[in-house]
């Protein structure tokens, strides 16, 4: 079984530097942690990049732009492809098949929209969308492949301080 998805690293400049749009997925993948000195349990925040399956008739670039709009409420323009992540996962539903997944990630420049203004039906997938500083975002994301895409976006922006709008 094979799946092909695409996603976006959406950036915008701010007074403090670049910001990136991330999502907190609705899935209850959060981890409960506690320390010896703290009887209270805390939920670890799970952050990810917006992404989704390439629909029939779409190319990956179109998918990345569509998924960003659906999951964050933001319109963006394509700057460059950052790369692909590849991994295998076991479906947690239905047939429990192993799935080989490829996700193409694109650097996108924010052009309009309000973060987290998404359709109600998307709340099944996305708890919320938010801007976070690009600097340090790789330490806040849950998935190693997405952390690498953040680092590639940072490298690109250092070499090209003002990506095309």
SSE arrangement:
Elements: E1 2-14, E2 17-25, E3 32-33, E4 42-43, E5 51-53, H1 60-72, E6 74-90, E7 98-113, E8 126-133, H2 137-140, H3 144-159
Parallel strand pairs: 1-7
Antiparallel strand pairs: 1-2, 1-5, 2-8, 3-4, 6-7
Characteristic key phrases:
6-stranded mixed β-sheet, two-stranded antiparallel ribbon, 42% strand, 3 helices, Nucleoside Triphosphate Pyrophosphohydrolase, single chain, 165 residues, alpha+beta
Structure write-up:
The structure is a single chain. The chain has 165 residues and is an alpha+beta fold. It has one domain (2-29, 44-159): Nucleoside Triphosphate Pyrophosphohydrolase (Alpha-Beta Complex), CATH 3.90.79. The protein has helices at residues 60-72, 137-140, 144-159; strands at 2-14, 17-25, 32-33, 42-43, 51-53, 74-90, 98-113, 126-133. The strands form 2 sheets. Strands 1, 2, 5, 6, 7 and 8 form a 6-stranded mixed sheet that branches. It is globular and about 50 Å long. It has 3 helices and 8 strands; from the N terminus they run βββββαβββαα. The longest helix has 16 residues, at 144-159. The chain starts with a strand and ends in a 6-residue tail after the last helix.
What's this, in brief?
The chain is built from three helices and eight strands; from the N terminus they run E-E-E-E-E-H-E-E-E-H-H.
């Amino acid at each position: 079984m094979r799946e092909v998805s695409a996603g976006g690293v959406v950036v915008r400049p701010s007074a403090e530097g670049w910001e990136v749009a991330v999502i907190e997925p609705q899935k209850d993948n959060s981890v409960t942690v506690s320390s010896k000195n703290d009887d209270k349990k805390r939920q670890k925040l799970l952050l990810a990049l917006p992404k989704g399956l390439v629909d029939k008739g779409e190319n990956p670039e179109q998918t990345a732009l569509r998924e960003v709009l659906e999951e964050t409420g933001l319109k963006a323009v394509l700057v460059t492809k950052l790369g692909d992540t590849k991994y295998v996962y076991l479906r947690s539903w239905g047939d429990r098949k192993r799935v080989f997944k490829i996700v193409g990630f694109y650097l996108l420049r924010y052009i309009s929209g309000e973060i987290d203004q998404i359709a109600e039906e998307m709340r099944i997938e996305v708890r919320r969308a938010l801007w976070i500083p690009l600097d340090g975002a790789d330490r806040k994301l849950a998935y190693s492949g997405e952390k690498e895409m953040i680092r590639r976006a940072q490298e690109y922006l250092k070499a090209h301080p003002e990506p095309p709008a």
